[in-house]
Amino acid sequence: MVQLLIYLAIALLIITVSQLARVFELAAELKGGHKNKPTERENRNNGRLWLVYLVAFFSFILWQLLNYGPRTLPEAASESGVKLDWLFNFNMIIIFIVFIITHILLFFFAFKYYGRDNNRATFFPHNNKLELIWTSVPAAVLAVIIFLGLKLWTEITTPADDTKSEVIEIYTKQFDFTARYAGKDNVLGKANYKLVIGANVLGLDSADVNGHDDKIVKGELHLPLNKEISFKIRSQDVIHSVYFPYHRAQMNSVPGMTTLIHFKPTITSADMRKRLKNDKFDYYILCNKICGTSHYAMKMLVVVDSPEEYAAWLAKQPEFLPATAKTAAITEPTAAEPKKEEKGM
Amino acid sequence: MSMDIHAVNDHHDAHADHEHHHEESFVSKYVFSMDHKTISRQFLITAVVMAVVGMMMSVMFRLQLAWPHEGFALTNFILGDKWAPKGVLDPNMYMALVTLHGTIMVFMVLTGGLSGTFSNLLIPYQIGARDMASGFLNMLSYWFFFASSLVMLLSCFIETGPASGGWTVYPPLSAVAEFMPGSGLGMTMWLVSMSLFIVSSLLGGLNYIITVINFRTKGMSMTRLPLTIWAFFITAILGVLSFPVLFSAALLLIFDRSFGTSFYLSDIIVNGAPLEQTGGSPILYQHLFWFLGHPEVYIILLPALGLASEIIAVNSRKPIFGYRAMIGSMLAIGFLSFIVWGHHMFITGMNPFLGSVFVFTTLLIAIPSAVKAFNYITTLWKGNIQFTPAMLFAIGLVSTFISGGVTGIILADSALDIPIHDTYFVVAHFHIVMGLSAILGMIGGVYHWFPKLFLRKMNKTMGYIHFWITFVCAYGVFFPMHFLGLAGVPRRYYTNSEVPMFDNLMDINVLITCFAIVGALGQLIFLFNFFYSIFRGEKAEQNPYNSNTLEWTTPMAHTHGNWPGALPVVHRWPYDYSKPGEEADFIPQTVPLRPGEVDGGGH
Ligand code: HEM
Ligand SMILES: [Cu+2]
Ligand SMILES: [Cu+2]
Question: Could you tell me the CATH number of the domain that includes residue B423?
């Protein structure tokens, strides 16, 4: 029934619009207008509408800036994120100026030069000076943008010094994240996808002693404040993306290779709650590469702790092969050859 | 089928005389036609149908995003109880709709539909040729396109649903059926459809290139071509060079899916057991895909810019400003578009130095693009602007081209791309710069060339209403998406209600959806006007806009061979509007130069 009404409403709408259009057209014809050439009146009306649009459009944008702007991501919670935000704002200001100026010109010209019956356009086919200006000015501005952008990019992507960083692996699969802390030796043990059986969810190779003190954690990712974190990212099925929106960091996880990112958290979760006056606030990792049906629900809670809290929390996490269990495990044959872990960037 | 592939060059001036010799049957006239005008209309109507399908899909998933988990009679009515029980969109179907919406819009509507319609219509008309180089290949091009569209639509009706890994169908997700229902038969059909599409696109593209090179009429030098033709020509070259690479990407994916190879697969576990296939690289697929994928956005955009150039010049009653700079920037854009594909892959683990190179090349493209934008604006300056509906759409295109283009400068900056990659900021960017610009250009083209397509006119007042509704809703839908992206909302999410951080964004999603619904309803006005005018519209006169280009010198009938007598001879560039010292404010290309008159904008 409702559907029927909707269809009726749509049909009525079309009929009304088309009839109105006819009436307008007939009226224009009676006034001596040519049916398909716009009359001066139509030109004027449309010209004015461009002006109205200009004002409405800018007001709409201003309204969004005021209303939606505060709801975008809060201040960056990592060292590189702060630099990134600065550069983002810098570029944003430039493009906003370009956007505003060109739109004023475009819509204003459309209004100002609407067709009059006794008017003739100015023949102005080209002008080398103007064309030179608007080739070279954008080129110069872009040179600055490229320079600043690449400087920061190089800085962010230069691999972390693992001896001075906290090494953590992020392992993705449909549809969750698992973390592995490198343990006392700060070295991740080797892993191989063929060993992913039963409880060995990351396929750790028990023949590699570096892995014995590794700590596998699900559900929550804890990070220490003010320490460079070096992430090694792997995937077991499809491509996912490890996206830290609040830390302005992101890297895809790709089956068959280990990808890297690193950043230094600068605001603890508790601190951020205070700053945002929101005691429910939490950091998250989101999956940001389409990975299947439940892509939208693939996430992990992130907790940034003070160094002391972090140490205490980490101490409570079980090791992969605690010393007591070790002797038994090493004598067991491994299922497959261990594989070299680092592959590509 | 009549054998009139010959109807192309000067030797057939006498053609009209034996017109009546071959009365064409209905089938050869309207179905398996080799006439460029009929093929153009076939492409257009198919594209309009596909656009309606693509739009309906977007309305359904927008409803879900604004009011997650709520039931809608419309959704249930279209999708049935299986995919929308009680009207609540199923998550798998959501993904499938997003995927098909993207694929249909990008390939069927704005590649096949846009180039197919206007290259076919305007290349022979505007260069003064009797038809395409090969009418037969041209016909095949349409029917491959038709088959491709049909397979894509049919994939909606299978048990496991259509492809659902996003329009980019990255493996391994798309390679292994177990990863997602849509990666089964639906994905196979997607690949079949795309392969057919690529064949269609290559047949069409080769034809366009050869026709432009070989069949220009006397006097029509390359620098006297209207910018539309330059745009179609460069577009065709891009397509011919890049679509084969997509084909190889698809072929390797077919091998991985069905024949046990592992080009794209490595270290994968399926259902708890290691997959036999290993040693490949999923990143290889992305390189191959985006080697087409980026030129593809210009394949979509350039024809729209070409149409806009012509519409803006004619209706401003002025020459297009900087004709040669416009050609130069299109060539530059075309060339650069082949060496920027890596900007889609900054955070895939690609070598960061390689990333830097792509940053550089990508930002270079901004320069010719800026030149184009400034040239359009200057063309309006001191014009005598005739606001036909087409002109409104063309100005709208310039606006979206700029506002979507500037955010490209942010996304091309690899460092800045890190936090916004794959968020709604990207969705906003590409819809505005490519989706809106191209669709506005295409609709503008339909209004402008309707008299040549169907010999009738569309209703102007309805055109105005259609434009203003469309243009208000266009920005209403896509501008707020920037803010969603900056709030960290990933794209391709079935709902934003799973993560508490997005709880305060619901009203933005509701606003977007409201605009989308009104915008979609606004298109009904267009559809009505379009189909009504095809049959009942007022008959058009010969040169309704006082244009200079050759298509308006053909009679208002669909003559086989286009010109009943000899082919027109060209004496000047196409932009002599309001030339000083001339009575009329336009001088058709067929008018000889006066003694001492300088061609090409000199005066
Ligand atoms: C009726 C107007 C339209 C609306 C409301 C709309 C809306 C959307 C939305 C909400 C998405 C999903 C974003 C995501 O979850 O990733 C999307 C995806 C997409 N749209 Fe549109 N769109 C419209 C028109 C167009 C047009 C004209 C194009 C032509 C280029 C287009 C191309 C795409 C593409 C390529 C995707 C990506 C699909 C994917 O993620 O695989 N859309 N659209
Ligand atoms: Cu995922
Ligand atoms: Cu690109």
Answer: 1.20.210.10
pLDDT for A171 equals 96
Instruction: Give the ranges where A158-189 is alpha helix by DSSP (H).
Output: none
Would you state the structure tokens that stand for residue B103, as one six-digit string? 């694929």
What pLDDT is stored for residue A325 in this prediction? 56
Residues A5-26 pLDDT 10s: 666 677 777 777 777 776 666 6
Nearest CA in chain A to B375: A131
Please state the φ and ψ torsions of residue A200, each to the nearest 5 degrees: -80, 70
Range of the domain at B199: 2-13+36-266+276-553
Q: Which residues contact B405 (CB under 8 A, 6 or more apart)?
A: B366, B369, B373, B433
Q: CB distance from B9 to chain A under 8 Å?
A: no
Domain borders along chain A are 166-331
Contacts of A105 in chain B (CB under 8 A): 377
Which atom of ligand 1 lies at the shortest distance from residue B477's CA? 5
Question: What 3-state class would DSSP assign to B58?
Answer: helix
Q: How far is CA A70 from CA A93, A130, A276, B486, in A?
A: 17, 40, 11, 10
Overall domain count for chain B: 1
Is residue B580 domain-resident?
Answer: no
Ligand nearest to the CA of B411: 3
- Structural domain includes residue B570: no
pTM for the structure as a whole? 0.92
- Domain A166-331 architecture: Sandwich (2.60)
Which residues 458-487 in chain B show a CB within 8 A of chain A? 459-462, 464-465, 468, 471-472, 475-476, 479-480, 483, 486-487
CB B343 within 8 A of CB B411: yes
Classify residue B515: in a domain, yes or no.
yes
Complex-level ipTM beyond the 0.90 threshold: yes
Lowest mean pLDDT among B166-180, B238-252, B589-603: B589-603
pLDDT of residue A3: 60
